[in-house]
Design goal:
Shape: globular
Helix content: under 10%
Number of helices: 0
Radius of gyration: 20 Å
Oligomer: single chain
Strand order of the largest sheet: 3-30-29-28
Distance between the termini: 40 Å
Largest sheet: 4 strands, antiparallel
Number of strands: 30
Length: 375
């Protein structure tokens, strides 16, 4: 055990990070496709499919973004226009109604998030430079909340600020302080009207669905059952869910249905994944390897189509250097042990082949999925 800090005279002990020996999965084989030699300090990874051409976007350090093609060739490198004391530890992205991709970068505990256009030119910073200091940003997203065709900035804070929404230009639309500390926030399932609700994780680790009342500039958050307008869609029953510290969402369920996955720690160093939906009667727990991520501010869950099936899969990076591939119903496809601490995870499909992207503190690599043997 190692001492990591103290608060009010109470010592906080953290378990040592034990890395599992490298081992191939059982039901498929991973073969290294490429290594990005130009990326010296890998971080968060985002894999996109723009018009059928996969792109891998990765942080290189705290202020640089690198764009790679499916073969690992570096297409572009962008030094982000940030304040001298700012850093980017996570990336988010969304596409507007005109097909233009926007990017948001931020850092947990930071004072601002930053919006970039397709060319990675700084478009806005939020909160504004004149805003008072706060306890730190916990997370942020880009979501079209008000059905205007453009994504809004959604920011969740430590402390008492709660959740705020702002336009892409950085103008505040509304604050919602009833949540107090917000551990995480993700978009709810897409609706036919184009607007999106939110699912927030409050300071107690409980999930709180929020819908938008009104449209356009009049849209305001309303805590509720999370039903889409005119759809009558019921949220899963989250009352029996254990408290979660982080939440992820994506079209991982059959037929592209929206699913949620939470990460929870029942005790220090113990980790479980919690499946939530998409149907009200779907709920599962999956034990994950013990430990705490220490090598970087990893975004430990991604989703991808690795296997060429009608359903996508969750990719869950654990502190022991392993990656669990799982279906939306919690069944494990397989587990790969990389043999090194992870700082980034992603996946993409190129033609008929699936790839897992793995970032460690000194390497960014892609592994092709071969010899798949599913039940």
């Amino acid at each position: 055990m190692s001492l990591t800090g103290c608060s009010g005279g109470t010592l906080e002990w953290m378990p040592p990070q034990q890395i599992a020996p490298r081992r191939q999965p059982d039901r498929f084989k991973l073969v290294r496709a490429w290594r990005a030699k130009g990326v010296a300090m890998p971080g968060n990874v985002v894999c996109c499919d723009d018009g059928g051409a996969a792109r891998i976007i990765a942080l290189d350090g705290w202020r640089t973004v690198v764009i790679l093609d499916p073969s690992g060739r570096e297409l572009a490198r962008h030094e982000l226009d940030l304040p001298a004391d700012a850093a980017v530890g996570f990336l988010r992205t969304a596409i507007d109604a005109a097909g233009k991709r926007w990017w948001l970068g931020g850092n947990r505990g930071g004072q601002q998030v930053f919006v970039f256009d397709e060319a990675w030119k700084l478009h806005a910073a939020y909160p504004g430079w004149e805003s008072p200091s706060h306890a730190g940003i916990r997370t942020a997203r880009l979501v079209d909340l008000n059905d205007d065709g453009a994504p809004e900035i959604v920011v969740g804070y430590h402390g008492t600020v709660g959740v705020q929404a702002a336009s892409l230009a950085g103008h505040r639309l509304w604050p919602e302080r009833s949540f107090d500390t917000v551990l995480d926030v993700v978009p709810d399932a897409p609706h036919q009207e184009g607007s999106r609700g939110l699912v927030c994780v409050n300071g107690h680790g409980r999930l709180v669905p929020v819908t938008m009342e009104g449209r356009g500039a009049e849209a305001r958050p309303v805590e509720g059952a999370g039903q889409g307008p005119g759809e009558g869609r019921k949220q899963p029953d989250w009352s029996a869910s254990p408290a979660v510290a982080s939440l992820f969402a994506g079209p991982v369920a059959p037929d592209g249905g929206w699913a949620f996955l939470g990460l929870a720690s029942p005790s220090v160093g113990k980790n479980i994944a919690v499946g939530l939906g998409p149907l009200p009667d779907q709920f599962w727990e999956l034990n994950l390897p013990d430990g705490v991520h220490r090598d970087g501010p990893i975004e430990p869950v991604a989703w991808a189509d690795l296997l060429g099936t009608p359903r996508r899969q969750w990719l869950i990076a654990a502190p022991d250097g392993s990656v669990t591939v799982a279906w939306a119903d919690g069944r494990v496809v397989d587990r790969y042990r990389h043999g090194a601490p992870l700082v980034g995870i992603g996946g993409y499909r190129d033609g008929n082949e699936g790839f897992i992207v793995i970032a460690t503190s000194d390497s960014l690599e892609s592994y092709r999925v071969e010899d798949v043997a599913l039940d």
